[in-house]
């Protein structure tokens, strides 16, 4: 027991030293249909010595078109930069210890943000339809890690209980993605738990108790099939909403009367986009304006 408590303390110290807020940058590969319009990723430079640096370049041409100038250079630094060849497993290795912190009783939120078509949903959920195991996204990998870890901790007297919710924010309104067939959707809104608390909750949102990894993956499939998606000029299957997956974690060690509670929140934000590039009109236009304002 003392060793387990010491592990938790040291683990949390390491996470705080790394930073409680971290920003990673992932660059996806050029798609086949894009290769005709652009010549690879020559404008991006990745440092083999420093995996935290990304350099963006572009030629600087004079208005007269005669004067040659050196290219413009923009240097960016992140907590980690993942080049196009990075695998889903490499991404997860960077957040795996944060997922472990959720099991230890610390609230954790991980979200993907970027332009529409940049690969956020692929990173968080994996391909649609589901493909090879190595292509699985951060959400199913996090769920797998949690349930594997609870089996290990069971030998130390810990018992865990999980419940899951899946919420969509579409056109400034909330949708419950885990409602069963025939169930009537309740009016949802975001409220504070109490006047003196910064903690938020959504009354009437469906929370489903889960006991196995397979049960959670089944819920993810159900929720994914109900998400609002549409074709735009930038993406064949663009997510038009923010999706918020939450897993409540309750742990107890009865022999020593110990308890821990936390929430792991995994968010796939809708993609930001420029109207002139996406070609959005009508309903797509209203969605785009709503997405850009709510981000």
Automatic annotation (TrEMBL):
Residues in Kinesin motor domain copies: 20-295
Protein name: Kinesin-like protein
Range of residues in the leader sequence: none
Keyword Nucleotide-binding: yes
SUPFAM superfamilies assigned to the protein according to its UniProt record, in alphabetical order: P-loop containing nucleoside triphosphate hydrolases
Binding positions (ATP): 114-121
GO MF entries: ATP binding; microtubule binding; microtubule motor activity
Pfam entry (one): Kinesin
Keyword Hydrolase: no
Primary location: cytoplasm
Top-rank lineage group of the source organism: Eukaryota
Cellular component per GO, a single term: microtubule
PROSITE patterns, per the entry: KINESIN_MOTOR_1, KINESIN_MOTOR_2
Similarity comment text for this entry: Belongs to the TRAFAC class myosin-kinesin ATPase superfamily. Kinesin family. KIN-14 subfamily.
InterPro entries from the UniProt entry: Kinesin-like_fam, Kinesin_motor_CS, Kinesin_motor_dom, Kinesin_motor_dom_sf, P-loop_NTPase
Assigned keywords, A-Z: ATP-binding, Cytoplasm, Cytoskeleton, Microtubule, Motor protein, Nucleotide-binding
GO biological process, one term: microtubule-based movement
Localization terms from the record: Cytoplasm, Cytoskeleton
PANTHER family: KINESIN-LIKE PROTEIN KLP-3 (PTHR47972), PROTEIN CLARET SEGREGATIONAL (PTHR47972:SF45)
């Amino acid at each position: 027991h003392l060793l387990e408590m010491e592990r938790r303390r040291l683990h949390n110290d390491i996470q705080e030293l790394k930073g409680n807020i971290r920003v990673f940058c992932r660059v996806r590969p050029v798609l086949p249909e894009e290769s005709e319009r652009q010549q690879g990723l020559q404008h991006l430079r990745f440092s083999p010595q420093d995996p935290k640096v990304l350099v963006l370049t572009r030629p600087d041409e004079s208005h007269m078109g005669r004067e040659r100038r050196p290219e413009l250079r923009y240097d960016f630094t992140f907590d980690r930069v993942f080049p196009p060849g990075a695998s889903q497993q490499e991404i997860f290795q960077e957040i795996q210890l944060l997922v472990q912190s959720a099991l230890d009783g610390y609230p954790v939120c991980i979200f993907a943000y970027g332009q529409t078509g940049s690969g956020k949903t692929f990173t968080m959920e994996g391909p649609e339809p589901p493909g090879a195991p190595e292509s699985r996204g951060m959400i199913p990998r996090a769920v797998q890690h949690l349930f594997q870890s609870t089996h290990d901790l069971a030998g130390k007297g810990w018992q865990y209980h999980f419940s899951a919710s899946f919420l969509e924010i579409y056109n400034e309104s909330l949708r419950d993605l885990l409602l069963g067939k025939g169930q009537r959707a309740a009016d949802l809104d975001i409220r504070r738990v109490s006047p003196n608390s910064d903690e938020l909750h959504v009354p009437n949102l469906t929370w489903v108790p889960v006991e196995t990894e397979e049960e959670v993956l089944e819920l993810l499939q159900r929720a994914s099939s109900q998400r609002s998606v549409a074709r735009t000029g930038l993406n064949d299957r663009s997510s038009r909403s923010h999706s918020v997956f939450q897993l409540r974690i309750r742990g107890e060690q009865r022999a020593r009367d110990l308890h821990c509670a936390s929430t792991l929140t995994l968010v796939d934000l809708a993609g930001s986009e420029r109207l002139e590039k996406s070609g959005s009109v009508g309903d797509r236009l209203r969605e785009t304006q709503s997405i850009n304002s709510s981000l």
